[in-house]
Specification:
- This protein is mainly β.
- A six-stranded antiparallel beta sheet has the order 1-2-3-10-5-8, with no helix packed on it.
- The radius of gyration is 18 Å and the shape is globular.
- The N and C termini lie far apart (68 Å).
Length: 128
């Protein structure tokens, strides 16, 4: 008879840095080759730039509030638990038209996931 084996307990400690933006903030929760996971919070009345990416696709899941989504020429709302996919090169925007915060989890997929892969088509804060 063999005795049960126990695996050593490992503890993983990370410091997640919050990056402030004029529309709210984001935190990179995880990043490995080929994908990055972020939490994004948009404050009431604010929105991200109308943008597209040439090297990554994204999947958004709403975790708090009601998000106003722009995908190409479609505009629609997503509630908690609802999600959408954004293809490489697809024009998109995340906005918060409510009085409460909106939070999403964003999963990025691609060979390059740098913050400089953003083409801003319209921006409320004068960024290019």
């Amino acid at each position: 008879m063999t005795s049960p084996t126990t695996s050593p307990t490992s503890t993983r400690t990370e410091t997640i840095e919050r990056t402030q933006r004029p529309w709210g903030w984001y935190e990179t929760v995880s990043e490995v080759a080929g994908n990055k996971i972020k939490r994004i919070q948009v404050t009431p009345g604010q929105q991200l730039s109308l943008q597209k990416h040439s090297q990554r696709a994204e999947h958004w899941v709403v975790t708090q509030g009601t998000a106003r989504i722009t995908l190409d020429d479609r505009v629609f709302d997503l509630a908690v638990g609802q999600h959408c996919d954004i293809g490489v090169g697809q024009v998109h925007r995340l906005a918060n038209l409510t009085d409460g915060v909106v939070e999403i989890v964003e999963v990025q997929f691609g060979s390059y996931l740098g913050e400089d892969d953003i083409v801003r088509l319209q921006d409320d804060y004068g960024r290019s």
